[in-house]
Amino acid sequence: MKLLTHNMLTSHVKGVTKGYPLIIKATEVKVNELEFNAQFVSRMIPKLEWSALIQAAEWLGQSQDLPSALIPDYENDEEFLRKVHRILLEVEVIEGCLQCPESGREFPISKGVPNMLLNEGE
Amino acid sequence: MALHCGRACRQYLLHLAHDNVDFRLPEIKALLSLRNRPFDTSETFNEKSPFWQLNGLSEDDIRSVMSRTVCGKSAFELWGHGTTTDELRMSLLEYPAENMAPYLQQNSTYKINVYTFNKTLVFKDSIEKIDALDFLPFKGTVNLKAPEHIFCLLEDYGSDPYEIPEEPFHMYFGRWIADGQRELIRSYSVKKRHFIGNTSMDAGLSFIMANHAKVKADDLVYDPFVGTGSLLVACSRFGAYVCGTDIDYNTIHGVGKASRKNQKWRGPDENIRANLRQYGTESLYVDVMVSDASKTVWRKTAQFDAIVTDPPYGIRESTRRTGSHKDIIKPPEDFSGESHIPVSMAYHLSDIFADLLNFAAHHLVLGGRLIYWLPIYRPEYCEEMVPLHPCLTLISNCEQTLSSHTSRRLITMEKTKEPEVEYVRVFWVETPWSKDEIDKCKLS
């Protein structure tokens, strides 16, 4: 699971109102090298909940030198975009789980794939 | 017919392939729309014809369309046309010489092809037709192997294979610009794909869907019924980043029984990511997840540039044919016990589309498109059965006939309004197919 996806996921456990962001508990994390695409990163930044991204990076020990708030004029800052590219697309949780912050319900991540299925009645 | 033009108003001729006929116009319109160009054609435009004249476009527009279309075979800069050889000749004589000159230079090489639709010509006749064009000021040398410029005489002998006229109904002459992407149909064939399933989408249709959806480079595309990822493969070919979800654990993880005839179990390299790797687009793979499309996992403000999907067609009880409106969905017979599906399977087919449209209304960017297949029982079909939504505008509805009484329709919708309230189901949809009819859709 990449952090771009995590940033858009929320807990859908019945009755939960504060289910975002899902807490990441990773037991295996991989960092892959992926072709840097400044355009795509620039396009995605406005769609992100920035604080949730920073939080997720911290959970994975990958927050390095990411600013805690979005910098203005980021489209032209290649160094910044490269950092965002890395955290959004190159860092992957292979094994672990996502935990609903309100209910505690855990969604397993196995071989990089989160399983978000709920049981009947949940 | 005169073609007096400056650069700005050249006419182009599109030669289209003769399959998926109903899907062609929406595809070309969508690709033109990616360039913010309208579809502008002649008064005599016939959608069923393999030859379309396009006005008001630049050569770059045409090249851009041809770099994406799987319906278009070739495109030409139209120099003349007519319903008789005299008309064609007159039309060519009226075409400004200065527009021709750059391609007829003395030190250049060229070749003239003859293409006849709905007729086979003997070699001698083709040569005669080419010779009849020698009034044109060709100054270069003929090179059949690697010419710098290719010209084409295209003749339309109508659409009735049993009534082929002596003379063509219409003739066109033009300079070849570019071919379409029909080669992708072969190179992306599901037969050669590493990971397939029973319902993997045919390559040609996947690309048509990606085009109808106006997918472009750096888009984020989502498929909520991703299966083996055929639609994501097509979208990634056009540069989009892709993600998908599916309720079936086995398919998402690429485990369980194989769909190939001589194979029992899926191998380790059989999953969606591997498919993208096969075609060199793994860098565009975002994620896939196991998830129930009826229970969205995305935060309210999560948005995609396009949603491209082939929802399950469902199974109806045999009571359908007596006119009952009971739509109970049974789990498919090949539902594997190890599939980790804990929830009840009573997902009514009409709910799938209601949820899909609602989802699209909330999770598409404004101007983004939803493309999906709607299964149809032809004897009962009427336009009112196509689901609608206040935030989505219906762009096209193309039928692919599957049998005398079943078909599926490729529906394209564009988000034109942000939702103000949480919309609930706004329509009712007939569910059409029996298990046998669904099985016919599957890969054999």
UniProtKB/TrEMBL annotation, chain A:
<comment type="similarity">
    <text>Belongs to the TRM112 family.</text>
</comment>
<dbReference type="InterPro" id="IPR005651">
    <property type="entry name" value="Trm112-like"/>
</dbReference>
<dbReference type="GO" id="GO:0005654">
    <property type="term" value="C:nucleoplasm"/>
</dbReference>
<protein>
    <recommendedName>
        <fullName>Multifunctional methyltransferase subunit TRM112-like protein</fullName>
    </recommendedName>
</protein>
<dbReference type="GO" id="GO:0070476">
    <property type="term" value="P:rRNA (guanine-N7)-methylation"/>
</dbReference>
<dbReference type="Pfam" id="PF03966">
    <property type="entry name" value="Trm112p"/>
</dbReference>
<dbReference type="GO" id="GO:0030488">
    <property type="term" value="P:tRNA methylation"/>
</dbReference>
<dbReference type="GO" id="GO:0048471">
    <property type="term" value="C:perinuclear region of cytoplasm"/>
</dbReference>
<dbReference type="InterPro" id="IPR039127">
    <property type="entry name" value="Trm112"/>
</dbReference>
<dbReference type="GO" id="GO:0046982">
    <property type="term" value="F:protein heterodimerization activity"/>
</dbReference>
<keyword id="KW-0963">Cytoplasm</keyword>
<keyword id="KW-0539">Nucleus</keyword>
TrEMBL record, chain B:
<dbReference type="InterPro" id="IPR002052">
    <property type="entry name" value="DNA_methylase_N6_adenine_CS"/>
</dbReference>
<dbReference type="GO" id="GO:0160102">
    <property type="term" value="F:tRNA (guanine(10)-N2)-methyltransferase activity"/>
</dbReference>
<comment type="subunit">
    <text>Part of the heterodimeric TRMT11-TRM112 methyltransferase complex; this complex forms an active tRNA methyltransferase, where TRMT112 acts as an activator of the catalytic subunit TRMT11.</text>
</comment>
<feature type="domain" description="Ribosomal RNA large subunit methyltransferase K/L-like methyltransferase">
    <location>
        <begin position="192"/>
        <end position="322"/>
    </location>
</feature>
<dbReference type="InterPro" id="IPR000241">
    <property type="entry name" value="RlmKL-like_Mtase"/>
</dbReference>
<dbReference type="GO" id="GO:0000049">
    <property type="term" value="F:tRNA binding"/>
</dbReference>
<dbReference type="GO" id="GO:0008033">
    <property type="term" value="P:tRNA processing"/>
</dbReference>
<dbReference type="GO" id="GO:0043527">
    <property type="term" value="C:tRNA methyltransferase complex"/>
</dbReference>
<dbReference type="GO" id="GO:0032259">
    <property type="term" value="P:methylation"/>
</dbReference>
<keyword id="KW-0694">RNA-binding</keyword>
<keyword id="KW-0808">Transferase</keyword>
<dbReference type="GO" id="GO:0005737">
    <property type="term" value="C:cytoplasm"/>
</dbReference>
<keyword id="KW-0819">tRNA processing</keyword>
<comment type="similarity">
    <text>Belongs to the class I-like SAM-binding methyltransferase superfamily. TRM11 methyltransferase family.</text>
</comment>
<feature type="domain" description="tRNA (guanine(10)-N(2))-methyltransferase TRMT11 N-terminal">
    <location>
        <begin position="11"/>
        <end position="182"/>
    </location>
</feature>
<dbReference type="InterPro" id="IPR016691">
    <property type="entry name" value="TRMT11"/>
</dbReference>
<keyword id="KW-0489">Methyltransferase</keyword>
<comment type="function">
    <text>Catalytic subunit of the TRMT11-TRM112 methyltransferase complex, that specifically mediates the S-adenosyl-L-methionine-dependent N(2)-methylation of guanosine nucleotide at position 10 (m2G10) in tRNAs. This is one of the major tRNA (guanine-N(2))-methyltransferases.</text>
</comment>
<keyword id="KW-0963">Cytoplasm</keyword>
<dbReference type="InterPro" id="IPR059073">
    <property type="entry name" value="TRMT11_N"/>
</dbReference>
<dbReference type="Pfam" id="PF01170">
    <property type="entry name" value="UPF0020"/>
</dbReference>
<dbReference type="Pfam" id="PF25904">
    <property type="entry name" value="Tmrp11_N"/>
</dbReference>
